[in-house]
Amino acid sequence: MSGSIARLLLLGVTFHALCIFSIFDIYFQSPVESSIPSTSYTSSPPAKRVVIFTLDGCRVDKLFKAVAHYADRYDLNPDSSSTAQVRSDSRAPFLGNVMRHRGSWGVSHNHAPTESRPCHVALTAGMYEDPHAVTKSWKQHPVPFDSVFNQSSSAFIYGNKDVAPMLARHAPQATEEHYTAREEVDMVREDTTLLDVWAYRKMKELFARGTATRDPELYRKLHDDKLVVYCHFLGTDLTGPKYGAGSMKYLENIAVVDELIEKTEIMIDEYYGNDGRTAYVVNSDHGMDLRGARCNKQN
């Protein structure tokens, strides 16, 4: 009798051990495949360079309200018969004009965890959080991964100290610059939009330096194919938790970014002689609930 009980206990322990091992074997695997060779999609892409703007923690409905004259609760169902309503209190019409007349747009849905670091990896590399990040206390992506940056000829990244270094980490051709923790605290204390203005000024300095006489090497990089410029606007991600995503401050922050994007497009188009070979991408890494918590996956 005791032998049967012992065998039953041994069988139970073995079964549970196999079940636990199977969970790690199935789910604790890196999605990165490093042995796949790079291939070109086309020999003549429509753009020579891409400029990417990320509005960190920007709610899609508030973006529509601030920049596209859309109603506050516009139905995002594509089968809906609802029409966009023009609002007289719109504060930032540039992106709205782009959406209506010359740009493609949509609503993306990201994946938990809705934090800036893994969401930026998803945006630039097309993959979600690597399970091995738990070994780095969820602060870094531990496995080298393929992204638009290491596939570029040159990349310039400006933004927050937690995002910019991480994006440039596995791309030796990338140059990143970020504000320090002390600088971030000082800017947030005065006005969160200063974080966005900082990133814009860095881009402005980049193209001001990139002349054939002032910096020939930078000039060459800026005129090569497959150039990527990445601008991380953190203001909305801090304004939301501080004032609420339904606040006037949050909408005003979106309006400030709208103006900065417009100025950037004008500046870059003039730099390249309006050659029409620059692609601009505006997106958000994750959404936010009305109280400012970063838990809304719609962006």
UniProtKB/TrEMBL annotation:
Transmembrane segments: 7-28
Pfam families (alphabetical): Phosphodiest
Keyword set, alphabetical order: Endoplasmic reticulum, GPI-anchor biosynthesis, Membrane, Transferase, Transmembrane, Transmembrane helix
Listed EC numbers: 2.-.-.-
Pathway: Glycolipid biosynthesis; glycosylphosphatidylinositol-anchor biosynthesis
Family: Belongs to the PIGG/PIGN/PIGO family. PIGN subfamily.
Protein name: GPI ethanolamine phosphate transferase 1
Origin species: Phytophthora rubi
